[in-house]
């Protein structure tokens, strides 16, 4: 059995209904993520918290030093848990995430967080490219409605498309309940 590590991606205040970039289903996704984090802590599985900040305030969201960049209280890291601050969509880019995973002997990553079609997508694909086995907990991830070329895509469809792509070629996509059982 592979040694697992839990990657909790960008479950920050900015994505809550009170934030500047609210996501559809973020509260239930965070609640499921909190259950998975509690299980990981109980089993001694290392937890790696990812927090996004845009360097130099280059965007109106995830501004360093604002409440929006703080990790949501329900999934907040405990003392001693790794917190990696990233400035790019991919949590591996210009961070020590790979070194942190390798230092813990992680071979399989369990991924939860936000946004399904962006930062979750990037971390899953990068992890697999780096040789990790990936499991994505679909109901512990959230996203938002998108628009492209005059077509509005509801968050549920954006999320389903991302999860379908993972299941097609990147890893196991399962529910929180199935994972915890």
UniProtKB/TrEMBL annotation:
<dbReference type="Pfam" id="PF00857">
    <property type="entry name" value="Isochorismatase"/>
</dbReference>
<dbReference type="GO" id="GO:0016787">
    <property type="term" value="F:hydrolase activity"/>
</dbReference>
<dbReference type="InterPro" id="IPR036380">
    <property type="entry name" value="Isochorismatase-like_sf"/>
</dbReference>
<dbReference type="InterPro" id="IPR050272">
    <property type="entry name" value="Isochorismatase-like_hydrls"/>
</dbReference>
<dbReference type="InterPro" id="IPR000868">
    <property type="entry name" value="Isochorismatase-like_dom"/>
</dbReference>
<keyword id="KW-0378">Hydrolase</keyword>
<feature type="domain" description="Isochorismatase-like">
    <location>
        <begin position="5"/>
        <end position="148"/>
    </location>
</feature>
<protein>
    <submittedName>
        <fullName>Cysteine hydrolase family protein</fullName>
        <ecNumber>3.-.-.-</ecNumber>
    </submittedName>
</protein>
């Amino acid at each position: 059995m592979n040694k697992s590590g839990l990657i909790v991606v960008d479950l920050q205040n900015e994505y809550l209904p009170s934030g500047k970039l609210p996501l559809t289903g973020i509260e239930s996704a965070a609640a499921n993520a909190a259950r998975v984090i509690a299980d990981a802590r109980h089993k001694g599985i290392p937890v790696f918290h990812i927090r996004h900040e845009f360097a130099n305030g280059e965007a109106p969201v995830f501004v360093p030093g604002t409440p929006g960049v703080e990790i949501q209280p329900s999934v907040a890291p405990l003392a001693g848990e790794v917190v990696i601050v990233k400035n790019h969509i991919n949590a591996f880019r210009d961070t020590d995430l790979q070194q942190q995973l390798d230092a813990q002997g992680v071979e399989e990553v369990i991924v939860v967080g936000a946004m399904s079609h962006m930062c979750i997508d990037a971390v899953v694909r990068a992890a697999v490219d780096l040789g990790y086995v990936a499991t994505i907990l679909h109901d512990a991830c959230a996203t938002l409605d998108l628009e492209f070329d005059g077509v509005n895509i509801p968050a549920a469809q954006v999320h389903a498309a991302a999860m379908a792509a993972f299941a097609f070629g990147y890893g196991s996509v399962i529910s929180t309940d199935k994972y915890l059982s």
